[in-house]
Specification:
The complex is a heterodimer of chains A (264) and B (319). Chain A has helices at 45-53, 75-78, 99-107, 121-134, 151-164, 181-198, 209-214, 233-237, 241-252, 259-263, and strands at 2-11, 19-29, 34-39, 60-65, 68-69, 82-85, 169-173, 202-205, 218-223, 226-232. With 264 residues, chain A is an alpha/beta fold. A six-stranded mixed beta sheet of chain A has the order 6-7-8-3-9-10, with helices on both faces. A four-stranded antiparallel beta sheet of chain A has the order 2-1-4-5, with helices on one face. In chain A, helix 6 (181-198) links the parallel strand 7 (169-173) and strand 8 (202-205). The longest helix of chain A has 18 residues, at 181-198. Chain B is an all-alpha fold and 319 residues long. Chain B has one domain: ABC transporter involved in vitamin B12 uptake, BtuC (Orthogonal Bundle), CATH 1.10.3470. Chain B is built from 13 helices and two strands. Chain B has helices at 2-6, 8-31, 39-55, 60-83, 89-108, 129-152, 154-164, 166-171, 176-202, 213-228, 236-260, 267-288, 292-318, and strands spanning 112-114, 204-206. Chain B starts with a helix and ends with a helix. Classes of the chains: A alpha/beta (264), B mainly alpha (319). At the A-B interface, helix 2 and helix 3 of A face helix 7 and helix 8 of B.
């Protein structure tokens, strides 16, 4: 499904601010894998996501989705394969457009956008049903501007938009980090439901070790731009936060520096 | 007074022409979230192309189409500067504007070309205001209908979302460079059309006619929104109509101010200051009127009011 081979990226190369963000990342995802990614600040978690999404070209290596090399494609062309939800709830939706308009745009991801009318009545009906499933009351506010929604509502909507057109790979970049704990739990539950229902392949970056253990069938730990730990199946199910910390200091030779990740 | 009233139809005519121009500004400024300074040049390009075509005996419809296409090309240049060459939008517009100064002079062959209604068969003219106003109204309505349709289509929606959220648009597979270019192309096509109409109205095309056009366009957008914004209810067609109304109000105010006897030399300064003031309002609102303190203050005030009301009610009941 997804194959990363020796992906490398240095920001600001040749300057005093040079940062080796990815130092040879190898990763192979099978169809249906739901991987959680953890690591300290600056470990390269989000950078891997952005490399896959194509925000900038990588320095070397290959990125294949479904066997197709996408490393040379611009961001909007890769969008055909990817559903993305961001950390910032403002990033994934257009605030000045209606809820149904946002969904209509998402429904055409990867399609050629024609001069046909932007939203059909059949779609409106479909959107209403999908929104009703969220249980947030959005189905009665389809013509409301998205800017009126709360952060949690916007993330739920973004999640819906990311998976409306079934993506080959769903990228969740700390998508609950900006939400309060209760809302975060709700959005996570929704995430689980959608992924299992549509049998999606997904990657989720998180700061929260408990979430990383509780969700998905595979867990990856990153450090200094490399994958240092990769577990799946039964072994992953048996993980505890303490065991993860142990593993981290073993593999990296350091203490896990980010207290927030442990406590949150 | 009669003098003043008799000058109002002319103000309306000019207002609609600038209202059409302001629709172009609306597309970049409001929809794409780009302040496009190309318009100061492209309005003159439209005027120049139309004037030269008519002077050279071409039919009016062809002259207008040529003007629009020329304007679209100016938008294309700015769009390429901005997207392909990565130059900030404002600077891209300024560069194209400067390019157009030379281009417009070359098109006209002189700094000014007279386009007299007595000599040529013009679509609109200040010598025949009744006819001009009707034609301009029809043109504005047709334009608004076409734009309403376009921005409702799949592709038009992607242009809107580009301005609303660049990040989301790319994540949803929209080529935002392309949509930006198309937005700039459409906008400047409309602005050039208004230039072609303006040249006919005033009877000449002049190299200086676009100076400060962006400010007048913005003023029309802002005035329209401030005075008639409550009419819109999020309807796109109504929003565009309101922009044209803004242009008309601008020119009625303009005519009034001149009639009162204000120095016409000061008008550009006043327009700019007016726009500056209106642009500042949302910023001030965010900075000084929506802080936590103010919200608390307002809540306190309301509580006091409610308490007073309750006290009065009690008194009445006791009495």
């Amino acid at each position: 499904m997804l194959e990363l081979k020796d992906v490398r990226k240095t920001f600001n190369p040749g300057t005093i601010n040079a940062k080796k963000a990815l130092q040879g990342v190898d990763l192979h995802l099978n169809a249906g894998d739901f991987v959680t990614i953890i690591g300290g600040n600056g470990a390269g978690k989000s950078t891997v996501m952005n490399a896959i999404a194509g925000l900038w070209p990588i320095d070397s290596g290959t990125i294949k989705i479904n066997g197709k090399d996408v490393a040379g494609l611009p961001e909007h062309k890769r969008a055909k394969y990817l559903g993305r939800v961001f950390q910032d709830p403002m990033m994934g939706t257009a605030a000045t457009m209606e809820i149904q308009e946002n969904l209509a745009i998402a429904a055409r991801r990867g399609n050629h956008r024609t001069l046909r009318w932007g939203i059909s009545s059949k779609e409106k009906k479909m959107f209403r049903e999908m929104l009703a499933v969220l249980g947030l009351g959005l189905e009665d506010r389809m013509t409301a501007k998205v800017g009126l929604l709360s952060g949690g509502q916007r993330q739920a909507l973004t999640l819906l938009m990311a998976t409306l057109k079934e993506p080959k790979l769903l990228l969740l970049d700390e998508h609950t980090a900006a939400l309060d704990p209760k809302t975060a739990a709700k959005v996570l539950e929704l995430t689980d439901n959608i992924i299992s229902e549509k049998k999606l392949t997904a990657m989720m970056v998180t700061h929260n070790m408990r979430d990383a253990i509780a969700h998905g069938n595979r867990l990856i730990m990153m450090h200094e731009g490399r994958i240092i730990f990769d577990v799946s199946g039964e072994e992953k199910k048996a993980l505890t936060v303490d065991a993860l910390l142990e593993k981290f200091s073993q593999s990296s030779g350091q203490e896990f520096s980010n207290d927030r990740a442990l406590l949150s | 007074m009669i003098n003043y009233l008799s000058s109002l139809p002319a103000a309306c005519t000019q207002g609609i022409i600038w209202g059409i121009m302001a629709i172009g500004v609306y597309i970049t400024y409001k929809i794409l979230d780009i302040a496009d300074l190309t318009v100061d040049g492209s309005i003159c390009t439209g005027a120049a192309v139309c004037a030269m075509m008519v002077i050279n005996g071409q039919p009016m419809w062809l002259a207008l189409i040529a003007s629009v296409i020329a304007g679209m090309l100016t938008g294309l240049v700015t769009g390429i500067f901005h997207t392909f060459m990565g130059i900030p939008a404002i600077l891209s517009g300024i560069l194209t504007q400067l390019i157009l100064w030379s281009v417009n002079l070359k098109i006209m062959g002189a700094a000014n070309q007279s386009l007299s209604a007595t000599k040529y068969n013009l679509l609109i003219s200040r010598l025949n205001l009744d006819r001009s106003i009707i034609i301009l109204q029809l043109l504005a309505i047709a334009l608004i209908i076409v734009l309403y349709w376009f921005f409702g289509t799949e592709f038009g929606s992607s242009v809107r979302s580009t301005g609303a959220n660049l990040n989301m648009s790319r994540a949803q597979g929209i080529n935002t460079s392309f949509t930006k270019i198309i937005g700039l192309v459409i906008s400047n096509g409309i602005v050039a059309l208004s230039g072609a109409l303006l040249a006919q109205y005033q009877g000449n095309a002049d190299i200086n006619m676009g100076k400060g056009a962006i400010v007048i366009g913005l003023a029309a957008v802002i005035i329209g929104e401030a005075l008639f914004g409550w009419l819109c209810r999020n309807n796109f067609a109504l929003k565009l109509i309101v922009v044209v109304l803004g242009g008309i109000v601008y020119y009625i105010v303009y005519t009034t101010v001149i009639y009162i006897g204000l120095d016409a030399d000061l008008l550009k300064m006043l327009s700019a200051l007016l726009v500056a003031l209106f642009l500042a309002v949302p910023y001030w609102k965010g900075k000084y009127f929506s802080g936590v303190k103010n919200v608390e203050k307002r809540a306190l005030k309301q509580e006091k009011k409610a308490a007073k009301k309750a006290a009065r009610k009690n008194k009445k009941e006791v009495a």
